[in-house]
Amino acid sequence: MKNQFLNLKFFAFSALLLIFSCSDDDTNTSNDGGTLEEGRYITVAAAKMGDVAGDGNGGTLIYSVSSADAKDPTVSIDPFENGFIAPSNRTARLQSSEDGNTIFNISYAGDTGGNYTKYTVGGGNSFTQTGSEISIAPYVGTAPRWIKLFDGDQTGSAVYVNTENEFDAEGNYTRTEATIGVVTLDLQNSLINEFQEHSVPLSPEEEAQGYYISRIDMPTLNAAGNKLYIGARLSKLDPATTESDSDFEILGSKTIVLDYPSLLNPTVITSTISNGNTNGYRSINSFEYNGSVYQANQSDPEGSHILKIDSNNQYDDTYDFNLDDALGVQDSYILAWRPTAFGKAVVAYRDASSAEGVAGAQGFFALVDLNAKTAQKITDIPYDPDFYLFQYQGFVVDGTEIYVTQAPVGENGNIYVIDTETGITTKGATLINTEGSHFIGMF
Asked: How many domains does the chain have?
């Protein structure tokens, strides 16, 4: 997608909207987002179009409501008209506290890229900056891939990888050096905890064939709190020409393991159950549950799997959970997912039946049981070819319930709430959209 920076007119126009929005006749939720008498805030994130419908490059707006209002089909939510602009030149990379009362943001790209800020959620477009800003750009660049670790909202981690081809004295290609950088950030005090760089090789046989780690993302802390798992994507070049090889055998899924909190002693573990990438894209791709880490993979020729890394920091190759088999589909691809603390999860996915829409072939939601290794398509959420899930960032988990957004690009939609224990899906508040834009999740 082409970079598109927020222009001054957009900032000025949005600022006026924040001041003058919501007349007495306004049918949308008021700017205070409803009264939070019980439950938690639900923050809806919306990505404005830049040049092309669905690109999300026009900036990110957020708007919060009470969980009661999020479930209420008579409530309308319009972040594009009334929302708070989350600082970022492109789509902001957002995370929230476990109770929904704080939003963490790291700007993506441009002059402010890599700037970390946090906000107290006050309902509606009330997001009050708290604490000091800090830039992680000196460590991981202005377009960082970062995630909040599940350690009580204490720590964030961002990563990058640089690659360089190596040659022998005769000029023959030998391997591609992959150097990763990992930084951890104190989210409460806006401080850098630790930063390390490492060379992360594959096996000599894999490297001789031109394989290398080309992208990393989604750091996840294990249950013991002493290892950090980082998802990886492998690419390949032709050793004879060093040109990119797009038609190659997909290797077993791999994860980089580091000591935590030191970020030292990198190793690479490989699944024998499944092939493909484990870095995900915009949404968190792996989660700790019941002492293990469960991880989705993508681009597996046999369809996406959910993989399991046990407390010994190795893949559990007896845990075979293939989404194709569980759903009875072909070419499944997990776009985003989120489990509850009880082992049930909602998975956003596409498959061979997905129609081509304005932003590509997108998808569906399924209810998954990690323990039983079963999955069932959620049919109460409508399917639309223009529903864009590839940029999806956040689900809200509240006990056994998971909140999602569904709205095609440029069209209105709704919040849906899935009770993961009963399987009942409830249609909630209406989401008001605008031309070429889409919703990227809830926090």
From this structure: 2
DSSP string, 138-151: HHH-SS-EEEE-SS
Same domain, 239 and 313: yes
Write the CB contacts of 152 (distance below 8 Å, at least 6 apart in sequence): 98
Tokens describing residue 84: 């708070």
Cβ-in-10-Å burial (0-12, 13-18, 19+) of 371 comes to exposed
The answer to whether residues 118 and 159 belong to one domain is no
- The amino acid that residue 382 corresponds to is P
Report pTM: 0.91
Nearest C-alpha neighbor of 141 from the set 98, 197, 187: 197
Do 188 and 228 sit in the same domain of this protein?
yes
**Residue 251 carries which side chain, given as an amino acid letter?**
L
Separation of alpha carbons 335 and 389, rounded Å:
7
Residues whose CB falls within 8 Å of the CB of residue 100, separated by 6 or more in sequence, listed in order: 40, 41, 42, 43, 64, 121, 396, 443
Which tens digit of pLDDT belongs to each residue from 278-330?
999 989 999 999 999 999 999 999 999 999 999 999 999 999 999 999 999 99
